[in-house]
């Protein structure tokens, strides 16, 4: 999606930068982990396929995917030294409540946490998710969020519930839980309060 190809979101603990071709080898390396594939319900791709997916996202003005590379460090390209994951947000229209104008987003956080235990439970994923949600609400008009998570990924399920998501469905075939958050006026105020420290910059 071209709308955010040069957008950087600077938080207190993490920075979200556009997912570029320079990040593909690192991400591809992470996704060779069978554990991470299982936790994120992902199929392994070749390096060439990963590059093609990155190009299609970056160059397609009508792409319905928003991807940011999640890094720990200070502001500025040179100071963001530690990459820890990618956060995805995919948009879709919700017709379930006969509201075709409702714009929804499915959130997925692919992180390196399962590979490096020292990064678990330190709030990086939570802040990144709040930052992406806030961007979606403020800049893209998102009114509803969903997260589909493997049933065994208890850490992610717990995190989303702390962010006010409610469990709405369980798919026993795919061993997957769906959590949802409707952005009411109250939830919008809460979300913007949680992210009032975030700065939007150019990459």
Tell me what the structure shows:
- Belongs to the acetyltransferase family. GNAT subfamily.
- One of its GO terms (molecular function) is N-acetyltransferase activity.
- Keywords: Acyltransferase, Transferase.
- This is N-acetyltransferase 9.
- The protein is α+β, with helices and mostly antiparallel strands.
- The protein has one domain (7-202): Aminopeptidase, CATH 3.40.630.
- It has helices at residues 24-30, 34-39, 47-59, 124-140, 154-162, 185-194, and strands at residues 7-10, 14-18, 65-72, 82-93, 103-111, 144-150, 166-171, 176-182, 199-202.
- Strands 7-8-6-5-4-3-2-1-9 form a nine-stranded mixed β-sheet.
- Strand 1 (7-10) and strand 2 (14-18) form a beta hairpin.
- Helix 4 crosses helix 6 (185-194).
- The model is unreliable at 74-80, 98-102 and 111-115 (pLDDT under 50).
Strand order of the largest sheet: 7-8-6-5-4-3-2-1-9
Number of strands: 9
CATH topology: Aminopeptidase
Q: What is the alpha-carbon Rg in Å?
A: 16 Å
Query: How do the SSEs run, as a string of H and E?
Result: EEHHHEEEHEHEEHE
CATH-assigned homologous superfamily:
Gcn5-related N-acetyltransferase (GNAT)
Count of structural domains = 1
What is the percentage of strand-forming residues? Answer: 25-35%
Shape: globular
Kindly report how far apart the N and C termini lie.
15 Å
**Which structural category fits the helices and strands?**
alpha+beta
What percent of residues adopt helix (DSSP H or I)?
Answer: 25-40%
Mean pLDDT: 78
By CATH reckoning, the class would read: Alpha Beta
Which architecture name does CATH use? 3-Layer(aba) Sandwich
Q: Are there runs of 5+ residues with pLDDT below 50, and where?
A: 74-80, 98-102, 111-115
Q: Characterize the main sheet.
A: 9 strands, mixed
Instruction: Note the total helix count.
Output: 6
Pfam families: Acetyltransf_3
Keywords: Acyltransferase, Transferase
Family: Belongs to the acetyltransferase family. GNAT subfamily.
Organism: Cathartes aura
């Amino acid at each position: 999606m071209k709308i955010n190809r040069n957008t950087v979101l600077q938080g207190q603990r993490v920075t979200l930068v556009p997912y570029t071709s320079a990040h593909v080898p690192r991400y591809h390396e992470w996704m060779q982990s069978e554990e991470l594939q299982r936790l994120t319900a992902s199929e392994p791709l070749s390096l060439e396929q990963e590059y093609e997916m990155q190009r299609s996202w970056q160059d397609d003005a009508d792409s319905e995917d928003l991807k940011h590379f999640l890094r720990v460090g200070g502001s500025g390209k040179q100071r963001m030294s530690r990459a820890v994951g990618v956060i995805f947000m995919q948009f879709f229209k919700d017709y379930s409540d006969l509201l075709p104008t409702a714009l929804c987003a499915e959130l997925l956080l692919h992180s390196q946490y399962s590979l490096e235990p020292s990064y678990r439970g330190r709030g990086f994923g939570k802040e990144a998710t709040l930052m992406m949600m806030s961007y979606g609400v403020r800049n893209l008009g998102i009114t509803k969020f969903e997260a589909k998570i493997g049933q065994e990924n208890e850490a992610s399920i717990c995190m989303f519930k702390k962010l006010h998501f409610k469990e709405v469905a369980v798919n026993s075939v795919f061993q997957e839980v769906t959590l949802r958050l409707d952005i009411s006026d109250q939830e919008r105020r809460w979300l913007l309060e949680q992210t009032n420290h975030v700065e939007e910059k150019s990459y």
